Amino acid sequence: MKKAKNYEAALPPLNWLFENAPNLNSSIYINGADIYEELATKTKDPQKKQEYVDKALGMYDQRIEHFGDEVNVLNRKASTAMKFMYSDKNKYDQLHEIYKNTLDISGDKFAYYNVTPYMNIAKVQYERGKFDAEKVIEIHDQLSAINQNNIDAGKNADKYEEQQEKIDAIFTSTVTVSCDYIAEKLVPKLEANPDDLDLAKKIIALSLSSSCTDQAFFTQAAEATFNKEPNAGLAKTIASRKLRSEETEEAKKWFNKALELSTDDAQKAEIYMDLASISQKEGDKSSARTNALKAAPLSPEQAEKAYNMVGNMYFSSYDQCKGGEDMVKDRAVFLAAYEMYKKAGNSSGMAQAKAQFPSKEEVFTYNYKVGDAISVGCWIGESATIQTRD
User: Fold this and answer.
1) 5: which residues sit within 8 A by CB, 6+ positions away?
2) Do the domain assignments include residue 265?
3) Which terminus of the chain has fewer CB atoms gathered within 10 Å of its CB, N or C?
4) pTM across the whole model
5) Phi and psi dihedrals of 345, rounded to 5?
6) Which letter does DSSP use for residue 183 in this model?
7) Are the beta carbons of 77 and 94 closer than 8 angstroms?
8) Cβ(74)–Cβ(110) under 8 Å?
9) Total domains in the fold of the chain
């Protein structure tokens, strides 16, 4: 009758088996759960639906009672409960109890397909005012540990990795805590155990969702994460925070780490420009130019910025570099600046540089010819082609 999908007719013989041969075979409880779930799906009567759902969940309990296999059956029960209760917020207290009991008994055998649903339960309970932030964090911690233990053991690793990504997204979109909360509740734990990668990542996630990235503990957590999982993006983030707090030497160190790890040309170009900006602010124009010109061929977007930066440094070097004896040679910095602005596609910069070119009379007076190469001395150390402004 079950195969014929005549579920109502299947109930009397099923109930007879429950009463007269409860230990016959686990299949009677498997079939019983399936039948009640189908009836619950098909009925339009809310009261009948609830009765069928309760009966279906009872099948799992009876199956455990008579045939054991508690972890497997509890996980299936939890999944069934979520299937029928997820749309009713008033059922989430019951759902939480089912999932909590399943997790407590299952431990690392908590099924991957229940991980994200349990995190969703925590989210709803938080939104309903039933859980505080610390409870959500606790559940996220438990689920993350289960995921990681299974990943490390190679048990459905890809599926648990997928679940971790999902619960991280739910967690960071759900919990907003104060920066003081992170500093008081989580940072001391990280200081006591700086190798706790999950905690470090949690502090980063909460810092991002709670606008606490300007806090010292964000950088502390980022460094702890980098020590375990070094990557260019994280190194660049740390470098930027160091720069913001005026730890210039530390910033340069982290930008260089990011360069060593990066395999993306666009990212490398950004980092070279960051280093160029630092050198420029320090007055080290030569290093600034070196880094800017390394950035230029890696990214069209950064090329414009790089050539403009070098052009501006050349343009502003007149007073620094002029000798006062040869007008044409002194104005060669503007010739060099013009070429950089040209590479940047900066017509305004080109016009400003051209306005500072030597005149035809000056070129003649100092015994030069238009089109000749001229050495641009000082820190620039390049040659330029003589042109005139008139």
Assistant:
1) 38
2) yes
3) C
4) 0.71
5) 75, 30
6) I
7) no
8) no
9) 2
